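Before the break, one more example. Copy the sequence into your notebook; we will annotate it together after we see the structure.
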Amino acid sequence: MAPRRSAGVLVFRRDGEGRMEVLLGHLGGPFWVRKDKRAWSVPKGEHGADEEPEHAARREFEEELGLPAPEGTWLDLGEVRQSGGKTVRVWAVEGDIDPASVVPGTFEMEWPPGSGRLQQYPELDRVAWFGLSAAAELMIPAQQEFLPRLRSAVD
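Here is what the structure looks like once it is written out:
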């Protein structure tokens, strides 16, 4: 089996005092509903070997948030390997998205397991802006590495 690969977009902005903030999405579905720490992610999604990762990042951003990724200079933050073995590649771009404007995409899964009932859930059940230290506490552990990379790329 080919390794699983994802690509995503980390949107950042500066608050009124010049501090950096990032836009993260809380993972949707029944496994994540009662979790907060380690349950927030860069908007991202899987792609095949035949799709360019940057194209996949743009496509997945739009699928997950219902909005196009911001235009501007894309900063390649590289890759990380998550605990499940998936490799995630992320680009950062400056933008200012209102979380209220997000219309999340959905996925379907059997729930409860073994019930035969398919239910739809949002890919991301909410989206919010966080300062870098708060984001580090909430993000999926492997993705936390993108925060110092972002700071280095911007500074």
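Residues 53-65 form the longest helix (13 residues). The longest strand covers residues 5-14. Try to locate both features in your own notes.
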